[in-house]
Amino acid sequence: MSRKCTAIDLFCGAGGLSEGFRQAGVHVLAGQDIDGTFGQTFSATHSEATFVGGPIQEISAESLLGAAGCEPGQVDILIGGPPCQGYSVYNHQRGADDPRAGLFKEYLRIVEAIRPRWLVMENVTGITSIAGGGIVREIQAGMRRLGYRVDMKLLKAEEYGVPQERRRVFFIATCEEHAPILFPEATHGPELTPFVTVWDAISDLPPLKNGEDAEARPYASEAKNAYQALLRGNLKYLYNHSAPRLSKTNLERMKHIPPGGSWRDIPFELLPEGMKKAKRSDHTKRYGRPAKTDLACTILTKCDVHWGAYIHPTQDRSFSVREAARLQSFPDFFNFAGSRTEQYVQVGNAVPPVLGRAVANAILDADTARKHDKPGISERGLLHAV
User: In whole angstroms, what is the distance from residue 237 CA to residue 306 CA?
Assistant: First the structure.
């Protein structure tokens, strides 16, 4: 491209999606989020961008353009993921009447005023089942009304080098007449580059005792692989390497769980009361201890061992904030602000930067194809009429 591609990030959180786009060479000009603590992390890690705080309903497009130093039509890409709790499969009361389920309309309001050339919207897979797919259709129809062609695809983070089983829906849209809509091709998996494993991601981090806080500690070893080298950069010390203090009962349960094991390995008398009646096929990830060669399960907003496979492969404790960030592909220079609870939320809510980078590169490839007058929409970029 003749100039650096620019972007504004709505619902930016700590900046996972922004970081991925930055790694692809996109200049992120501004980020918006309701949470000021998230904004502290974003500002500290995106010094080239301006953070705009406050509820999206109270944020004007003019204020975002002012923060970015742009006029309408000058921003190349608007990225963002409206908060997903209303759609999440972990929210059993989810539905179209959840107030968070309408935040995509605020995204579209900003689109109409800013008029970017490209749109990227990310969300959890649960969005596809709400109201029989009605919200998905409404999002796509809203983008089309604003003059954009749009496609949607479910992406698996592990297929792009993230050491975690994570499924996310991405909408990509453009108002460029001759630009194909492309999604990134998988780079990891069978007959491709091997998946990045849990141990690939965290084996260079120092050991922790249950509840220990190891701020500003040196690494346990040199980087052992390309993934660790990428995330470490030139850092000598790491931050946010702290784990919650688990109860004596949970510690006793962990002693019975081998790598690759789960709640099924806990003696019956030690099981939580609510799980004593569970079928062996239920709660497959609860009290899980991944093997070194496993992918992590989806990193949520807290690494609660009762929720999933968040027990360290070799140590009797849950994953630290830094380990969760590694499994999300955050570079180690991200020093997450706030309490430990707030740090876990920032990590778990984010788009893995490595996945964001793959999406950004696909958009840059499509933009290059447009400039060379090669629309050439491949099978992966065919538009779906909904």
Answer: 31
Would you please indicate which residues are annotated as catalytic (active-site) residues?
A: 84
Rounded to an integer, what distance in angstroms lies between the CA atom of residue 50 and that of residue 41? 12
Q: Which two tokens stand for residue 200?
A: 């690939």
- Which pLDDT tens digit goes with each residue over 30-76? 999 999 999 999 999 999 999 999 999 999 999 999 999 999 999 99
In Å, how far from its chain's centre is CA 71? 29
**Domain chopping of the chain, boundaries:** 6-189+351-381
The residue assigned the tokens 């930067």 is: 353
How many other C-beta atoms can be found within 10 angstroms of the C-beta atom of residue 2?
A: 4
- For the domain made up of 6-189+351-381, the CATH class stated in words is alpha beta
pTM, two decimals, is 0.91
Percent of the chain with pLDDT over 70: 91
Q: Which amino acid is at 186?
A: A
Please identify which residue in the block is written with the tokens 């997450």: 336
Q: Specify the 3-state DSSP secondary structure of 171.
A: strand
Question: CA–CA separation, 121 vs 130, rounded Å?
Answer: 17
Give the three-state DSSP class for 238: strand
| 156 three-state secondary structure | strand
- CA distance readout (Å), 313 to 43, 70, 149, 248, 298: 33, 48, 45, 19, 16
For residues 350 and 342, is the Cβ–Cβ distance under 8 A? no
Tokens of 296: 């992590």
* CA gap 319, 28 in Å, rounded: 31
pLDDT category at 141 given cuts 50, 70, 90 is very high
pLDDT of residue 379: 34
Answer whether 26's CB lies under 8 Å from 79's CB. no
Contacts 24+ apart (CB under 8 A), 377-385: 377/180, 377/181, 378/180, 378/182, 380/153, 380/182, 380/183, 380/185, 381/151, 381/180, 381/181, 381/182, 381/183, 382/151, 383/149, 383/150, 383/151, 383/181, 384/151, 384/152
- Name the amino acid, one letter, at 36: G
